[in-house]
Amino acid sequence: MSDYNAPLKDMQFVLTELAGLAQVSALPGYAEATPDVIEAILEESGKFTRDVLAPLNFSGDQEGAQWADKVVTMPQGFKEAYAQFVGNGWNALSGNPEFGGQGLPKVVSAVVQEMWQSANMSFSLCPMLTMGGIEALELYGSEEQKATYLHHMVSGRWTGTMNLTESQAGSDLAAVRTRAVPQGDGTYKLFGQKIFITYGDHDMAENTIHLVLARTPDAPAGVKGISLFVVPKFLVNADGTPGARNDVYAVSIEHKLGIHASPTCVMAYGDNGGAVGTLVGKENDGLKYMFVMMNAARYAVGLEGLALGERAYQQALGFARERVQSRAIEGSVSSVPIIRHPDIRRMLLLMRSQNEAMRAVAYVVAAALDSAMRHPDADERIRQQAFVDLMIPVVKAWLTETGNEVTSLGVQIHGGMGFIEETGAAQHFRDARITTIYEGTTGIQALDLIGRKVARDGGAALNALLGQMKETQASVAKQSGASFKALAAALHDGIEAVTTAGDYIVTNYAKDVRAVAVGAVPFLRLLGIVSGGWMMARAALAAQAKIVSGDTDSFYPAKINTAHFYADHVMVATIGLAKEVVQGGASALALDDAHF
């Protein structure tokens, strides 16, 4: 089994040098987010995740969440860990101070959230869904709903869920059938069943607040007829305490490939007279409101890909240092630790370099979200939001697809022992597999990217991003040494590849959407790899500046070397991916259905 130690040095480097923590702290409302405060928060989070959450990861996976008689019981230790989590204020970190939150920047919350996910992904899914519900209610809830729910949800005493999917609908929310019948007193009674509801029931919190998509009796068909409702597990008394049990129950939990300690519930609404709920916002606008939760969840799920990749890397590195097997290829008298073998080093650096690239992309996007929300200049808010909108599908899908690759490499480095559950390497691989499916599959994210984020604005947001990349590439090209030469060449080729593929999408989307859609996932992967290469180039420049200033910390030359490796081993895929986007449509669509 592996321990988890948060990579604080790299986290703080990315926060400071790439995400611009100083600029984020200067935004209105973030004055208390000073470097010393953030450093203390990250150190304490590192201790909590190492000492409290990480030790429950393997045992929770082995025991799993249990369901009996419509009640879900969490694995041993989870309830106590959650009480400590709430008591220490972790759930309230980025919450609105108006509702008891600490009001810290989203980028700081992202760093801490990565730690939760690395330490114990199953545990982390509970606060992740709660945070999305908080955001949706803050933006669209009534004053009464905010007063009733938000203080409790921000503190974490009450948790939240997102109820979208039904068995006949899947990702097609137009097919949602759950009914909401008005009662004439401002409440509704809901009837229906939802599936795949993360933490739909559990015993860690005193109440669970469900946000549920349903249709009112006169609603139009399709997505235009979906409304959003708040349905608490326990109805809330006038004094704000949980009261009578509502008619919503977990009727089963799924038996899954991974995340065994996270209860994935089938929820039944209204089997005994109707589940009482209240409407959020206006009727038939529910999908718009739910997308607030979905976008927050998509970013958080992207972090899961990074987080599990980091946990897998730490375990694989520890194993490679300790496992002695075979003589060195250049010749040695006795067997050596497998970290000496070239292919093991290649795999470890594939894991490490991609983790570092993912971390940089994720934190920079979170910092841009802070600016989009709080920057005093309206034009700058618009510019930052355009960047965030472009990058959210990349964060969600590229990070999770890469996380799957990285955790798979972790199993491979362990050899046969990686396939044995007792080592723990397999759990990271199993847990990661859901991340490319959660909150919209990779294919759905890619279609969103090419359609809504590239073709719709004629490539404006993409071209703005490429402009920033070109500035970095020019700076890298001015540096001396083999590493910077490789970085400059790789980033140049990557920018050209994204430009070629992006131009193809913009030009042909309206003409032949099916052919363009064939290349949607390759384009998303291309943009993710090049965005990661851009971040690694920026990191190398920042590290070089530290070295020039006289800093002798070995972290900085190692960062440059890791960026060089990323250029040589990851960025080389960009030209091929661009060709796949531009040329791949015809052959993919040539066969009719009968020939498959």
TrEMBL record:
<feature type="domain" description="Acyl-CoA oxidase/dehydrogenase middle">
    <location>
        <begin position="162"/>
        <end position="266"/>
    </location>
</feature>
<dbReference type="InterPro" id="IPR006091">
    <property type="entry name" value="Acyl-CoA_Oxase/DH_mid-dom"/>
</dbReference>
<dbReference type="InterPro" id="IPR009100">
    <property type="entry name" value="AcylCoA_DH/oxidase_NM_dom_sf"/>
</dbReference>
<dbReference type="InterPro" id="IPR013786">
    <property type="entry name" value="AcylCoA_DH/ox_N"/>
</dbReference>
<protein>
    <recommendedName>
        <fullName>3-methylmercaptopropionyl-CoA dehydrogenase</fullName>
        <ecNumber>1.3.99.41</ecNumber>
    </recommendedName>
</protein>
<dbReference type="InterPro" id="IPR046373">
    <property type="entry name" value="Acyl-CoA_Oxase/DH_mid-dom_sf"/>
</dbReference>
<feature type="domain" description="Acyl-CoA dehydrogenase/oxidase C-terminal">
    <location>
        <begin position="284"/>
        <end position="451"/>
    </location>
</feature>
<comment type="function">
    <text>Involved in the assimilation of dimethylsulphoniopropionate (DMSP), an important compound in the fixation of carbon in marine phytoplankton, by mediating the conversion of 3-(methylthio)propanoyl-CoA (MMPA-CoA) to 3-(methylthio)acryloyl-CoA (MTA-CoA).</text>
</comment>
<dbReference type="InterPro" id="IPR025878">
    <property type="entry name" value="Acyl-CoA_dh-like_C_dom"/>
</dbReference>
<keyword id="KW-0285">Flavoprotein</keyword>
<dbReference type="Pfam" id="PF12806">
    <property type="entry name" value="Acyl-CoA_dh_C"/>
</dbReference>
<feature type="domain" description="Acyl-CoA dehydrogenase/oxidase N-terminal">
    <location>
        <begin position="65"/>
        <end position="156"/>
    </location>
</feature>
<keyword id="KW-0274">FAD</keyword>
<dbReference type="InterPro" id="IPR037069">
    <property type="entry name" value="AcylCoA_DH/ox_N_sf"/>
</dbReference>
<feature type="domain" description="Acetyl-CoA dehydrogenase-like C-terminal">
    <location>
        <begin position="468"/>
        <end position="592"/>
    </location>
</feature>
<dbReference type="InterPro" id="IPR009075">
    <property type="entry name" value="AcylCo_DH/oxidase_C"/>
</dbReference>
<dbReference type="GO" id="GO:0016627">
    <property type="term" value="F:oxidoreductase activity, acting on the CH-CH group of donors"/>
</dbReference>
<dbReference type="Pfam" id="PF00441">
    <property type="entry name" value="Acyl-CoA_dh_1"/>
</dbReference>
<dbReference type="GO" id="GO:0050660">
    <property type="term" value="F:flavin adenine dinucleotide binding"/>
</dbReference>
<dbReference type="Pfam" id="PF02770">
    <property type="entry name" value="Acyl-CoA_dh_M"/>
</dbReference>
<dbReference type="InterPro" id="IPR052166">
    <property type="entry name" value="Diverse_Acyl-CoA_DH"/>
</dbReference>
<dbReference type="InterPro" id="IPR036250">
    <property type="entry name" value="AcylCo_DH-like_C"/>
</dbReference>
<dbReference type="Pfam" id="PF02771">
    <property type="entry name" value="Acyl-CoA_dh_N"/>
</dbReference>
<comment type="similarity">
    <text>Belongs to the acyl-CoA dehydrogenase family.</text>
</comment>
<keyword id="KW-0560">Oxidoreductase</keyword>
